[in-house]
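Internal tracking record. Fields below are filled automatically when a chain is submitted to the structure queue. Please do not edit lines marked as system-generated. If the sequence contains nonstandard residues, flag them in the REMARKS field before resubmitting.
Queue: standard
Priority: normal
Entity type: single polypeptide chain
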Amino acid sequence: MHHKIGVLGLHHDHIWGNLEELQRTGRAELVGAADPFRPLLEKYQSMHGGHITESYAELLDRPDLTAAYIFASNKATEDLTVAACERGLHCMVEKPMAATLEGAQRMYDAAKSNGVRLMINWPFVWWPQLRHALDMAQGGAIGQLWQVSYRAAHQGPVELGCSEYFCDWLYDRELNGAGALMDYCCYGAVLCQVLLGSPEVVYGVGLSTGLKPDLSLEDNAVLIAKYPHGMGVTEASWTQIGHLTAYQTTIYGSTGTLHIEPNHGGRLLLATLDDQGGSPVYLPESPHHLADASTHFLELIDNPDLEIHPLCDPEHCLGAQAILQSGIEATALPTA
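SYSTEM-GENERATED OUTPUT FOLLOWS
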């Protein structure tokens, strides 16, 4: 089936790579894009053509749309997703899900009540080694799970080279939902939700190191999710120099430990009682529907019986949003 997709929001920098990926599938037509920032609209049109508008409502009113890519601020995403779902559009939303738990719940409810697919896209889902580690952990390969740890870190959005449009809302508590905590603790939160479920309690520390004097938000955060017989640790940093320790995932079990190296090409390592140093795990070939975010989204639309990947499942992402909300409350940070 050939789908016609409208893009709601261009001010999340992840949009550009996802649009290129979508075009490579050859299975969808980009009808147009809406965003309040004219330079982003002009960039989009120069790359993809089609209709552009500063009005989200105008794009949503087009009768030929079948789905929407939503790449706006976390706060704007809440209303845009609800509006798109009510219009009967399937939606792919860039992580985390929303700025607030209440907004995430509205998104979830809107998708359910309108019978449309809602997929939350996390860039690390498309690392084969991460997906296989989840399959192994959930299949009992390392026994009883007792800890999940993830650290997301870099020197900061500005220093990383993110666009001014992206940084402006990342550095705005209302539009982002928090600072580094929302931007980067979200990854570990969804891993915890999928592997361990909803925690009993969430502890947290969020702080400003003072290394970014112009930033009013926390630039570092650590959340600990407590379970009856386990815990999850999710770390976020906007001040880390270098890539050492960044984007590392470790899953601890009673009979083994899984360590996932980041990015495409990263290894999955398994340590056991008989192999304390750990050895690489063979990665089986991935099914076609998990080739990338766009392929998975289109397959979900075309095949109603296809199960969404657990990390992209809005129910799990709603649970992750609850972990983040509890973390914000635990750190005594202001709410959005």
